[in-house]
Amino acid sequence: DREGLSGRAFNVILEDKGYQTKVSKNWQPTYKGKSYAVVLDTGKKHSSGVPIQQVKWKEGIMKFLFKV
Q1: Distance CA 45, CA 64 (A)
Q2: What is the pLDDT of residue 2?
Q3: CB contact set of 3 (below 8 Å; sequence gap of 6+)
Q4: pTM of the predicted model, to two decimals?
Q5: Pairing of strands 26-29, 51-57
C-alpha cells in the first residue's frame, strides 16, 4: 500500500528521502534504499536490446517514508 499515492508521487517521495535516484530516465535505489528494494527483470527489452528492470519496494520502507 502506498498510502493512496500515485506511482509518480511515491517515486518523488522516495527520491526526496534519499532512497532512490534517476539514472538515464530510470529509477535506481541508492545505497540508503538498497536494503528495501528489489530490482526485477520485467522480461521486456528496450529497442536497444537492454533488459527493462523494475524496482519494487519492500513493505518495510513505509515506516521510513511516513513516520507518524
Answers
A1: 33
A2: 67
A3: 62, 66
A4: 0.81
A5: unpaired
